[in-house]
Fold:
Amino acid sequence: LYGTDMEAAYQHAFVYIRQLAIYLRAALQQQSQSNIRAVFNWQFLLALRTWGLVVSTYAEPNQLGPLIHPVVQIAVGVMDLFCSPRMFPMHLHVIEMINHIASRANVYVPVTTYLLRILTSPSMSLDQQSKKRDAAEANNEPIDLQFTMRIKKAQAKSQQYKVQVWNESLYLLAEHLALHSHSIGAPESFW
Structure:
């Protein structure tokens, strides 16, 4: 539908991406509960994902390509707004979306810093003490990261959660590296 009239599609996409940016800016400037709730919900995340798919599908400069940068900036802003380890599932959703945009639009978007932030977080260390504690608390309900944006405080300390986040982070890192492995600048762009 958006491919039929690029001029109208650009204007329509611009308005809605701008609205997402306005919500994010309000949450960054004044972190009130209503501003945070406007950004931290499935509706915002899925709207961002949808617009990411639309602009990356029509990524040519004479189509919707110029809107890729604002979508990625909003995604990065969302990750910078919520830095708590309890919010890492949302970070993984956003990084997955950015990887898909980079793949479809054939652009380089650096996400390794965000993945390494998750992997090197002190709260995400895989230690022996938490394994013993988790064995005692074996009745914890399983966490499905695919349908989660934030987890409870008690779940954040569980070994099961840490392993799931590690697995997903490593998968996204491998996907990101594989996406750009064919580029001659690959070694320089990651380190």
Q: What stands out?
A: The chain has a mean pLDDT of 86.
